[in-house]
From TrEMBL:
<dbReference type="InterPro" id="IPR001763">
    <property type="entry name" value="Rhodanese-like_dom"/>
</dbReference>
<dbReference type="InterPro" id="IPR036873">
    <property type="entry name" value="Rhodanese-like_dom_sf"/>
</dbReference>
<dbReference type="Pfam" id="PF00581">
    <property type="entry name" value="Rhodanese"/>
</dbReference>
<feature type="domain" description="Rhodanese">
    <location>
        <begin position="16"/>
        <end position="104"/>
    </location>
</feature>
<dbReference type="InterPro" id="IPR050229">
    <property type="entry name" value="GlpE_sulfurtransferase"/>
</dbReference>
<protein>
    <submittedName>
        <fullName>Rhodanese</fullName>
    </submittedName>
</protein>
Length: 106
């Protein structure tokens, strides 16, 4: 499974041509507390029923609180035939520490 650090993701977002899909798999209440501006929230439990909403051509970056749930979603998506999925190591918590301290910690 591919992994990306918060700093690497930040650089990728800055240089991306629009092919990134930031998939936040946390619960809505978590997403409401802290999120990356460009991210879309589909909680982990809803991923199986939301597969048709995902574009296999995009690079899907999976995000959660610390990187564990998102890792499981990456594995699930790869088993479902998605090739270009990447896990954000350390999750939104590490993003807040390393990239944007304005993103709330919880």
């Amino acid at each position: 499974m591919k992994q990306i650090s918060p700093n690497e993701l930040h650089q990728l977002i800055q240089s991306d041509s629009g092919n990134l899909f930031l998939l936040d798999v946390r619960e809505k209440w978590e997403f409401d507390i802290a999120r990356l501006e460009q991210s879309i929230n589909i909680p982990m439990s809803q991923i199986p029923s939301a597969l048709n909403e995902l574009d296999e051509e995009q690079t899907i970056i999976c995000i959660c609180h610390h990187g564990i749930r998102s890792m499981h979603v990456c594995n699930y998506l790869m088993q479902a035939g998605f090739d270009n999925v990447i896990n954000l190591t350390g999750g939104i918590d590490k993003w807040s520490s390393d990239v944007d301290p304005n993103v709330s910690k919880y």
